């Protein structure tokens, strides 16, 4: 009897360790160590990096609410802010209320493109829809299987790209930002 209990306990431990390893290795997006704190640095990419990001931004595609493939060029002809987020992310939960305020202030002149990073593990289409429906009114899109995030080298969320009217990336924020910092960025492309 003791041998069976030992084998069963060992099997459970192996399954738990395997599950933990799976979750860690399949998760490509992380949060900053300073969870829900606002960044003190707003350093920006070089002109070359912005040009490369612009090229990648113009090539990405994502899914609309009807699961139809679309792109930034198809969604907007105005300046825009592209936001990568997930419902499980505490940093995103802290940043979204600020973005909602800015959406009310700037939505006439600037498009807000919220890309839900759907990895099918921590984030699903349904979890993103449920979170937004309970808290916000803006339209969002799905980055299914992190295809767009990978193309733009998004390694943590929230990450926000500010685009001018020609859909060129002019600023990038790879962590939470204050309302003032984001407002200034949006004013610069308005």
Automatic annotation (TrEMBL):
InterPro entries in the cross-refs: Thioredoxin-like_fold, Thioredoxin-like_sf, Thioredoxin_domain, Thioredoxin_ResA/DsbE_sf
Residues annotated as domain Thioredoxin: 51-190
Name of the protein: TlpA disulfide reductase family protein
Source species: Streptococcus suivaginalis
């Amino acid at each position: 009897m003791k041998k069976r209990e030992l084998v069963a306990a060992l099997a459970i431990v192996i399954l738990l360790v395997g599950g933990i390893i799976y979750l860690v290795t399949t998760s490509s997006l992380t949060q900053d160590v300073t969870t829900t704190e606002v960044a003190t640095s707003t350093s920006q990419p070089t002109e070359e990096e912005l040009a490369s990001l612009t090229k990648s931004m113009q090539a990405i595609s994502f899914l609309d609410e009807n699961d139809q493939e679309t792109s930034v060029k198809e969604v907007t002809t105005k300046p825009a802010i592209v936001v990568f987020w997930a419902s499980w992310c505490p940093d995103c939960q802290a940043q979204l209320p600020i973005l909602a305020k800015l959406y009310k202030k700037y939505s006439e002149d600037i498009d807000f493109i919220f890309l839900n990073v759907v990895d099918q593990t921590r984030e699903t289409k349904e979890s993103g829809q449920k979170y937004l429906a309970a808290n916000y009114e803006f339209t969002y899109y799905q980055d299914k299987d992190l295809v767009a995030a990978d193309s733009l080298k998004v390694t943590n969320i929230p990450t926000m790209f500010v685009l001018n009217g020609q859909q060129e990336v002019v600023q990038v924020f790879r962590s939470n930002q204050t309302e003032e910092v984001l407002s200034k960025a949006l004013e610069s492309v308005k």
